[in-house]
Amino acid sequence: MDHESSSGFSLLTASRFMGIADGNILSWCPTMDLIAVSMNRMSVWVFRLTGERIYSVNTKSVIVSLVWNPSGKYFAVSGQDGLCKIYDSNSGQLINVVGTGEKIDLISWPEYNLSTNNYDLEGLFEVDTLSQLPRLSSYIDHTGADNSSAHLIAFQIDEINKSNVDKMDYLLSVQHGNSLSITFNSLFTVDNIKLPDGFTYLKHISNNDLFHQLFLVESDTKDYVGILEAEFKISDQDNLRSYFIKLLSYSCKILSIFNYIKDSLHYIVEEIRPYFQFFDRHLSNLKDSLYNEIDLTTHFPTEEESNRKIVTSFIDMLVTGLVDPQLKDYWTNQLSERGVKRLSKMGSALYETIRKVCFNRLIVALERLVVILNSIEGIVRWLEDFSIENGDDIINFGLSSKSISSCCEQIKALIEYLYRLICEINEEERLFNEFISWIKLGVIDKISKEDDLESYYESLQSSFKYSDLIEYLNNYLFSSKLFNYFEVELSSNEVILPQKTKHNVVVMYDSIESNLRSTLIGSFSSYIRSSLDLTKTYSFDVMPEITLSSIYSPESKGSSVLCLHEKPTNSLAIIKFTEGDMSFHILRRIKLTQDQSIIKTSLGQNSNLLMLVKDKDQYLLKLFNLDDLLSQDKKEIDYRELNSVKSIALQGYGEYSLTEPSHLAANQYGRQIACILDAKKRNYVVLEF
């Protein structure tokens, strides 16, 4: 269209959403040309510029807000259920859920550049041991499980395998106006941080400084608007902040390893169950055949008696080489060669899976956990010794080197226990294969060729070690060694009924995780809560009853810009403040006439200010230069006197015409594009400026 080219705006698309947007969420991905739109209050649809919907997610709760991870890889949706659900931007798959269930007022997702903490000679003699360890991988097939579980595990593995990462993101949320929660790398959550009362928290100002957080607040009495400063009381001397960041990173990795190990243990148990259920079904059929001529109403055998009878029947066949005639139907028709093959296949697959999961996943993850804990213990010991030598108060971030060392010993014991498990199942598998071979060749094949036993013995090429078979029948048939290491729910079984053990892999791991959560994660969380100072506030000279229109913090730290819509005076207050000196700020106020009204504004890179304005009966999208506005001599500026860099009347667009533009979303950090949505919440246009 001609008016686009002459205005300086370029029309990228004019289209119509497939559904009816609810107008709550209209948000651009910071790194990809994707726009998220809330539909039906509980769903998020993600579109390309062309209007093509690539996926949708149902949050199962009324949506409050949506924020993107700075990398654009993920987005988080907060709902009225008090939870933040984190999704993969490429697929829309749920990867994690954080939150306490308390009402969420606002969320923000900044990141901290670790390279900003450069200390003299830091890392000169540091060896990154984690990067030298085997990388964790997931060969487990999750196709039969919930897809979100597979995506969550992939996300955990990525976090565990990260090495020398230079950025850390953190998701902040304010609940009920009096509590702050911080989730680092979507994993490590520190919640219940007490916030000062008497304020409504409007927005978190993303200044990319983890140690220095700013919140735009309004007093509950509506007579005060300003900034609340939240600062971690951690000295910038002696590399303390660097150690603090390392501990945060290690804590995230530890929690990832927790989830990774729990998934692996759950997978093993789920693999064990069907094998023993199948085995039990055939042993139960054998028991029924053995008791076929016995009146069970007058003599019902105990578990021990029935097990002894089954074992005796096997040993009789083994010693005599004869098959009880009443069992021939069981061997040839009920179990049959097909059943033996399936049992053999399931057993071999189970033992192989357990070996691989224990060695490639559990042991590797536990070894990585030991290395991480040793690194943490080294930091804590150094801080303790350094403080004692200098006569200072001990600064150890709330951690105890002795407790960490104790946890390391527990983990080492579990690793040894897993190696013992691998050795024992190797022996059990050897005996199991001998048993299966005998059942196939020494029983079923013999029955099938009983009319020509001479040719049967001539073709028999295998010999059976009777001592191994008897050992399997006596010690493994009803009590696999796996039952000593894993508690498996087999209550529906009739014959294979494992006894509960107080000491197994899951119990040992649960003890380790519980200790680490209390002595490390819990103690470190308590330290973080206590180290956050929330006492500094700074006021702005703006009217009460304001509406936050937009906010922007450049990636280069140092300043932030706010746009506040002052409804009583129909004005737009523009505030630029320096974070190092909050008492200094520049304020300019754009005043509009009664015929003019601000619908939406958006701040962005290159000192851009986009304003969606209704001027009499015309809707205009205007682009202003912030530096020009803030350099004006007058503090109050008449809107009619402003010269915009670009301006366009939002009219035309054919069947996709905007009768009443009411929503504006611009990409602050990536491509300079803006989406304007009609009041009917279907037609929209995307403009590049």
Supply Rg: 34 Å
Based on secondary structure, the structural category is alpha+beta
Biggest sheet details = 5 strands, antiparallel
Helix count?
Answer: 11
Number of strands: 30
- Would you tell me the overall average pLDDT? 86
Between the first and last Cα atoms, what is the distance in angstroms?
A: 15 Å
Measured by DSSP, the beta-strand proportion falls in 25-35%
Global outline: elongated
Name the poorly predicted regions.
142-148
Portion of residues within helices: 25-40%
Give descriptors for this structure:
about 700 residues; alpha+beta; 5-stranded antiparallel beta sheet; 5-stranded mixed beta sheet; 11 helices; 30 strands
Could you outline the blueprint of secondary structure elements for this entry?
Blueprint (H helix, E strand, L loop, with lengths): L1 H6 L2 E7 L4 E8 L5 E6 L3 E6 L4 E6 L4 E6 L5 E6 L4 E5 L5 E5 L5 E5 L2 E3 L33 H15 L5 E9 L3 E6 L3 E7 L4 E7 L6 E8 L5 E8 L7 H51 L12 H18 L7 H62 L11 H48 L4 H7 L6 H10 L6 H4 L19 H27 E8 L6 E7 L6 E8 L4 E8 L2 E11 L4 E9 L3 E8 L2 E8 H5 L5 E3 L7 E4 L11 E6 L6 E6 L4 E6 L1
Parallel strand pairs: 22-26
Antiparallel strand pairs: 1-30, 2-3, 3-4, 4-5, 6-7, 7-8, 8-9, 10-12, 11-12, 12-13, 13-14, 15-16, 16-17, 17-18, 19-20, 20-21, 21-22, 23-24, 24-25, 25-27, 28-29, 29-30
Keywords: Cell cycle, Cell division, Mitosis, Ubl conjugation pathway
Protein name: Anaphase-promoting complex subunit 4
Pfam families: ANAPC4, ANAPC4_WD40
Explain the overall architecture.
The chain has 689 residues and is of the alpha+beta class. The protein has a domain at 257-528. It is built from eleven helices and 30 strands. Strands 10, 11, 12, 13 and 14 form a five-stranded antiparallel β-sheet that branches. A hairpin with a 3-residue loop joins strand 23 (596-604) and strand 24. Helix 6 packs across helix 8 (466-475). The radius of gyration is 34 Å and the shape is elongated. The model is unreliable at 142-148 (pLDDT under 50). One of its GO terms (cellular component) is anaphase-promoting complex. Residues 239-450 form the Anaphase-promoting complex subunit 4 long domain.
